């Protein structure tokens, strides 16, 4: 009986070994094809249940991650933020309320339209606003300066309004949000959308689309925006050393913020999310303090410490390895129920940045975050095989000269091979 059992174990091990060898050979044949000759590629695939490494290729090498960085931002926010958004901190004294920004990105945001601050301020005769409690610069290190007028590069601030952009559209006439800036918009034939240093905007006469143009955030603009809402009610105060012990929470669940950031790869939400997370550590806001805190505590076991400089991945200074992404994705998988976790990620062939790629036929099989910046594309997340296994992966591609669409198609053949053969 014992000999028969040994034979059975040996046969099963041999079958598994053959399948594993076939799987690895199939992937190697794909990623060592001539298509990949003149680029840098890394791939790590791990079984979520057993933690066994299914495939590894340059997994400990550093890559430019682009928006894959948002996976680290998501993890940080989930560690530090409560279930509902901390809209702002405040103190009250008689008929006066003093409001301190927490970096909350949803206030009057076109998608979320949080109005918690307006409702609170309405009940007081005087409103003092502290807006200079942010240590971060308005732009992240390594951001491209020429993106100053593009929708994906808004300035960072302690108390954002309207997503820190002017939303301009036209039907019969120009429509501008916030409306108070309507007089700052000129219709003209130009590719430029805003002056470099001030809030003078341009709407191309040939354009009939809705455009979002980043605002230049300064005290003059903040005063103008608040004055339009509550005339002669708002004054500014400087940050003090006395801590704010009261927090006003909006009715917006933080999961809705995470989902939006991940699905459409919203850079503004990502940057402000780290800033907002820092409000749980101190009244002085700093995304750097959050990155340092998370790496020192929750992520002190990373096999390769990343160079992590922003929340969005806009910066080419960011450097991460496939192993680091798989480690963080594994922590998320172990800490959060699968239904909730997968709901936060774009779904292949279904939603967000993956809507046109990685289709699964009758059912989705990819739940992942993409990252794209010139000549670099990566995808990290979860893959469900036909056998029902969950694989955690990070597939990173840097410095290619082909089209990103071609890169995606070649990656898709690897994912389909894993789905069908594991």
UniProtKB/TrEMBL annotation:
GO terms for molecular function: serine-type D-Ala-D-Ala carboxypeptidase activity. InterPro entries: Beta-lactam/transpept-like (IPR012338), Peptidase_S13 (IPR000667). Residues 1-21 form the signal peptide. Pfam families: Peptidase_S13. GO terms for biological process: peptidoglycan metabolic process; proteolysis. The keyword Repeat does not apply. Gene3D superfamilies: DD-peptidase/beta-lactamase superfamily. SUPFAM superfamilies: beta-lactamase/transpeptidase-like. Its EC number is 3.4.16.4. Keywords: Carboxypeptidase, Hydrolase, Protease, Signal. It is an enzyme of class 3 (hydrolase). The keyword Protease applies. Belongs to the peptidase S13 family. This is D-alanyl-D-alanine carboxypeptidase. It comes from Neotamlana sargassicola.
